[in-house]
Amino acid sequence: FFSPGFQVAPETKAVMKWLRSIPFVLSASLHGGELVVTYPYDYSRHPMEEKMFSPTPDEKMFKMLAKAYADAHPVISDRSELRCGGNFVKRGGIINGAEWYSFTGGMADFNYLHTNCFEVTVEVGCEKFPLEEELFTIWHENRDALLNYMEMVHRGIKGIVSDKFGNPIKNARISVRGIQHDVTTGN
């Protein structure tokens, strides 16, 4: 998952441990520097290839999740190509992470490969380091999109896997025909 020599920060290790201990199913990472929603894979299947579309087996679900956020965001959903993030307008404000730029060690890829959690990355604005007085506007622009995204937790597989006595089965593998990526039940 990580390239040779890659150092994992202590806070990243803590989040990885936390993700493995609690059965999260949906998350988002918020970044600055652009205005777009990206989804896995962030690391190209061919590491020497830049800007290479690298879909997961759950490509349709990830696109739906990213679109749920983008469509509810007042600026990302704006069709003007002259605005911040306008170069993603023709893509609906979303892009496969590796197709935009490939990098190793991203949390969205980790979550998908090592937990049941589906994560997108939300680039919340074109300022990498927004000024304090800009934060309220950024929050206001992203609030409804975040709520819309959180409601997506009710999509996809959900329920209780139990034995014939009604007892929950821990770590049961769930397979969906046509998608080569299984999930497991929680505690």
UniProtKB/TrEMBL annotation:
<feature type="domain" description="Peptidase M14">
    <location>
        <begin position="1"/>
        <end position="153"/>
    </location>
</feature>
<dbReference type="GO" id="GO:0008270">
    <property type="term" value="F:zinc ion binding"/>
</dbReference>
<dbReference type="InterPro" id="IPR057247">
    <property type="entry name" value="CARBOXYPEPT_ZN_2"/>
</dbReference>
<dbReference type="GO" id="GO:0016485">
    <property type="term" value="P:protein processing"/>
</dbReference>
<keyword id="KW-0862">Zinc</keyword>
<dbReference type="InterPro" id="IPR050753">
    <property type="entry name" value="Peptidase_M14_domain"/>
</dbReference>
<dbReference type="InterPro" id="IPR000834">
    <property type="entry name" value="Peptidase_M14"/>
</dbReference>
<feature type="active site" description="Proton donor/acceptor">
    <location>
        <position position="123"/>
    </location>
</feature>
<keyword id="KW-0482">Metalloprotease</keyword>
<dbReference type="GO" id="GO:0005615">
    <property type="term" value="C:extracellular space"/>
</dbReference>
<dbReference type="InterPro" id="IPR008969">
    <property type="entry name" value="CarboxyPept-like_regulatory"/>
</dbReference>
<comment type="similarity">
    <text>Belongs to the peptidase M14 family.</text>
</comment>
<keyword id="KW-0121">Carboxypeptidase</keyword>
<protein>
    <submittedName>
        <fullName>CBPZ Carboxypeptidase</fullName>
    </submittedName>
</protein>
<dbReference type="GO" id="GO:0004181">
    <property type="term" value="F:metallocarboxypeptidase activity"/>
</dbReference>
<keyword id="KW-0325">Glycoprotein</keyword>
<keyword id="KW-0378">Hydrolase</keyword>
<dbReference type="Pfam" id="PF00246">
    <property type="entry name" value="Peptidase_M14"/>
</dbReference>
<dbReference type="GO" id="GO:0006518">
    <property type="term" value="P:peptide metabolic process"/>
</dbReference>
<keyword id="KW-0645">Protease</keyword>
<keyword id="KW-0479">Metal-binding</keyword>
